[in-house]
Every structure is written in C-alpha cells, then in structure tokens.
Amino acid sequence: MTGPTVTKTPKLYIGGAFVRSESGLVYRPQSAANVPRGSRKDLREAVRAARRAQPGWAGLTAYNRGQVIYRVAEMMESARSSFMLALGGGRQAGREVDSCLEALVFYAGAADKLSQLGGSVNSVAGPFFNFTIPEPVGVTFLVAGDRRALLPLVTHVAAAICGGNAVVALVSSARPLPGLLLGETLQTGDVPPGVVNLLSGMPEDLLGWAGSHRDIDLIDCCGCDPQEWRELAEAAAESVTRVLPPETTPALTPSLSLRMMEMKTVWHPVGL
Amino acid sequence: MDGWVHNRDQMRNSAAASTLSATPDGAVSLDQVAVEARARLFSSRSVKRGSKLFACNLIITCTDLTTLEGSDTRGRVEVLCAKAMRPVPDDATIPAVAAVCVYPSQAATARRCLQGSPVVVASVATGFPSGQVPAEVKIAEAGEAARFAEEIDMVMDRGAFLEGRHLKVQQEIAGVKEAIGDRHLKVILETGELGGLDQVRRASWLAMEAGADFIKTSTGKIQPAATLPVAVVMLEAIRDFAWATGREIGFKPAGGIRSAKQAVAYLVAVNEILGDRWLRPQRFRIGASSLLNDVLMQIYKERRGGYQSPQDFSEA
Q1: Shortest CB distance from A44 goes to which of B305, B307, B312?
Q2: Domain ranges for chain B
Q3: B311 contacts on A by Cβ (under 8 Å)
Q4: pLDDT tens, B229-270?
Q5: Reported confidence tier of residue A31, pLDDT bands at 50, 70, 90
Q6: Looking at residue A107, which CATH number applies to its domain?
Q7: What is the ipTM of this complex?
Q8: Separation of alpha carbons B162 and A233, rounded Å
Q9: Is the predicted pLDDT of residue B14 greater than 80, yes or no?
Q10: How far apart are alpha carbons A57 and A60 in whole angstroms?
C-alpha cells in the first residue's frame, strides 16, 4: 500500500513559532530539502524574542528549569526515530542521539547545583557576610558548527539554559535538519517560547551581525573555525561582549554552564 | 469619496449661523474593509536607509514625550524633561522632542524644567482619561492647566457623543477653547470607545468644527488605542475639512505606538493623505513614552552598522 508522501518543510524556530526566513530565501544543503536561509532580520527577531523570554526563564526556580530540561530529554527519546532519520540513520546516529540525551539529563541535574558549585561564602576583613552567586549573563548566541549535526547544539543549549540564559543558536549549515528538528522537541518539552531560538543559514550572512549586536551578552563560538572565531571576537570587542572559544569535544561539565554566567558578590552586614 | 467633499457655501452658511450642529458629514458611511486594506498598505513599504534616518529624526521632533501615571512624581517629570530636551546626553545631533505631556498637577514642574528650551509643555485636561466630570470642573481644570502649558490635550465627552448629544460635545470643546485662550487645543476622541469608523469620522468633524487645533486618537488608557485604520479615517476627515474650510488641523496618534516601524507607518499615511505640509510638529505629533528609545536605537543602528541594545539608552 502506498499513500501520499508528505514532506516536512524545515523552518526556523523563533519566539516559540516555526517560521520561514524573513528573507524568503532557502538553500539546499542536504538532498531534497529547502532549508530557510536565515537573514539578519531573523537574527534580530530571535534576539528580541530571547531578550523578552529571558527574565521569566531565569525567574523560575533552578529546580523547575531542571525539570523542563529533563522533559526535553523525554521528548527527544520519544522522537528518537525522527532524529535518527534526520541524522542519516545507522549506529552512529543512534550513538549521537544517546549522547544528546545524556547531555540533556546531565544539565537537567546540574540546574539546581550551579549555585553550590560556582558560588561561595567568602571570608572578608570586616563584620560582613559575603556571598558570591552565579547569575545568567542574559542572551547568548551559539554557533553550533558543522562538526556534528546535533550533539554540540544540544549540549551547549542545555548548558546555557540550565543557568537561566536564553539562547539564539545557529545550527549546522551543512546539516541543519537535526538542529531544526530540535525546535519541535523543545516546544513539546514545555521550554517557554523564546528561551531557545534556532536559526539555519549561512554563517557569512549572520556572524557579522551577531558579533556587532549589542543586545547579545555572550557569544559561544563552539563550532566556529578559527577564522570565524577571530571575526566574531573582533566584532564583539566593541561592546565588550564575552566570547567563548571553539570547542573540540562537547563537554559534560557544570563549568560550561558557569562560563555562561556572571558572578555576583553581595555584602551583607552581620547582625541585620 | 466624492460624498465627503463639502459644499463650501453650505459650510460657510453653517458657520455664519454659528450653530454648532452636526454637519452633512454625519451621514457618511465608511467601507471598513476598504479602509483596513488601505491602512495595511502604509505599513508594507520598504523604507530605505536615507529615508529611514529622515523619518527617525522627524519622529523625534514630532514626539509628545508622555507620562500619565498616577505614580508620576516631580522627580519623574524632571527626568522626562531632561530626556525631552536632550534625548541622548552626549550626542547633540539628536534633536529635542516637540513637547512633554503630563497631568495638570505636573505642568508647573515641567514648565520650570523646560524653561528656555524649544520643548513646550502639554497638559491633559477635562477629567482625563474618562472625561466624566461636570462641565464647570472641566473648564476650570483646562484654565488652570493653561497657566503652565502651551498645549492642552482635552478628552472629548464620549458619553454625550454616544448619547447623540453632539451639540453638548461641541459646546464643551468650544468652552474649553475659550478658557485656554491662545493655547493650542488637542481634542482626544478616544476612538476605541466610539464603536466604529463612522463614529470616528463624525467625532473628528465635530471636534474640528468646534475649534480643535489638533485631533488626537486616544488617551492611551484603553485598548485599542491608535490604529492605522482609525488614522486613515481621521486624516481623510482633516483633508476634507481643509478643503471645505481652508483650516489645517493637526493629527496626533497616541497610545500603543512603541516601535519606529509603527511610527513610520503613520508618517507614510500622513504624507499620502495630507501631503508633506503636515509633516512638521505644528501639524503632526505622536504621543508616546517608550517610542523614543526605539527610534534612537534605529538611528544608532544605521550610524554604527550594528543592532543596538535597549540597555544603552536611558529610561523615561
């Protein structure tokens, strides 16, 4: 029996909605798929959505954020076959999905432990309690890169949002389909709209605008090549935006989350 | 459209008889679908860089920077006035806004702060925002506000208008006009409460006949506030009134205009319906509080070549 074949149109994920690129352009990186070619205005809208969503997300309890990220893992597990298909199938695709699930569960668990791991009670020369606590930087921009289609994206998105950041991520431009599929998983996983935004397209269309965007608080060059990293860092210098260097293997460590956070130190008089 | 063009003699006659009754205009019936379709065109223009910078500068010089909160303090008004005179403290190329719009009780403070600057004081009056106070109180309030404010934004009596007591509405406007002397009078129609575009047209006409120098869409206190379809109707009323009487009335959209993009759509509408004679602060104002920063962000985006952060611009 053969029914009609319905193919899915890949779309950007901005502010909780699946949209075509404002530019109306597409490109064909993987056979037979017209993938939206995100423009600077898509980036602008994504940053706006992230900025709107971030305070509410950071305002949830860390425990609650962890629960949401765990739920994303549940949704990914139930969509395993779709991810396998998008990744090209086979044992390697299976291993990549496994690693993504592991990363999600890891950062779900890390969410309510960051303040213990990154924070401290400091001794000071005076009658004060002195605390240091990590707080999210705000909106981060992630370049997931082409090394792998899904794992760096999932790992770095999870690491960023578990600390209370909102993310605008540029998925792999060579293999964007698994990354864009993540949008559906995030939406059914109850991640509030705007907390994670996924763009596909050409790095050369977007990186310059992201680097000079003054409302981006941190640029995660995870999957950049050295040249892209350099250009982003130079553009970001104008606004003193923090830039994380490219990474060879995605790490499961709370220090990745803590690098996307700002340390706040509070002085409080003893006895009040 | 032809039905809206008035017989000049008829207009003169009604003016000569000095009755403030409804004009033939009361009978017009507007095609809502067509008005909305036209309004959509105004926001679908692609505005290129040079025009965008021109528009952004114009928007600033036509802004009535507004704070109308129960929580307004002298301090807050002082901050707003500073921002009005110099929107970016370290950049003299950004022009001052047209006016600061406050409650009557803050008008004296605003006047003191704006002394010697081109920015004028506008004060709301006549029981803003509802207009549900006795007529004598309205006159007294407007007169008091006019001691400090160069411009008075009065609210039209929507209750009387909806009851069909148009004469009362007009007499009240004329009364306020008399009480404030040579001050500029803006009449707020509160179009969101009028219940339809026909009513907006009728209210615009009544207000202009009764002596308004400006007609203003909304108080900003109820939804919907300013919308483009309403603007189209009011602008066409202004155009027809100018044709009929030779008097050029100003237009002020207010409420809910937060982005430069929205404001540009109003500029386009004004330019297309009334022409560029209206694109100046004497004939066009935008009432807004948060619009100014978005306009500044657009200007700096064009100058610096990158997107800006709202955090880089002062509040108020």
Answers
A1: B307
A2: 28-308
A3: 215
A4: 999 999 999 999 999 999 999 999 999 999 999 999 999 999
A5: low
A6: 3.40.605.10
A7: 0.85
A8: 62
A9: no
A10: 6
Q: What is the rounded end-to-end Cα distance, in angstroms, of chain B?
A: 43
Name the 3-class secondary structure at B159: helix
Residue A150 domain flag: yes
CATH classification of B28-308, choosing from 3.30.210.10, 3.20.20.70, 3.30.70.20, 1.10.1610.10? 3.20.20.70
For A236, name the nearest residue in chain B, comparing CA atoms only: B306
Domain presence at residue A17: no
Q: How far is A212 from chain B (nearest CA, A)?
A: 5
Query: Hey, is A142 helix, strand or coil?
Result: strand
Q: Is the pLDDT of residue B18 over 90?
A: no
Structure tokens that stand for B16 in this block = 């000569």
Q: What are phi and psi of A224, to 5 degrees?
A: -75, 150
Q: Which of B309, B311, B312, B313 to mutate to test the interface with A (most CBs of A within 10 A)?
A: B309
* Cβ under 8 Å to B: A residues 191-230: 209, 212-215
- Give DSSP secondary structure letters for A38-58: --HHHHHHHHHHHHHHHHHHH
A32: number of Cβ within 10 Å = 6
Number of domains in chain A: 1
pLDDT digits 0-9 by tens, B70-125? 999 999 999 999 999 999 999 999 999 999 999 999 999 999 999 999 999 999 99
Q: How far apart are CA B232 and CA B207, in angstroms?
A: 17
Q: What is the pLDDT of residues A193-236, one digit of tens each?
A: 999 999 999 999 999 999 999 999 999 999 999 999 999 999 99
Cβ-count burial B197-228 (b if 16+ within 10 Å, e if not): bbbbbbbbbbbbbbbbbbbbbbbbeeeebbbb
Domain with A197 in it: 47-269
Better-scored residue on pLDDT, B219 or A4: B219
CB contact under 8 A, B309 and A44: no
Distance CA A160, CA A182 (A): 15
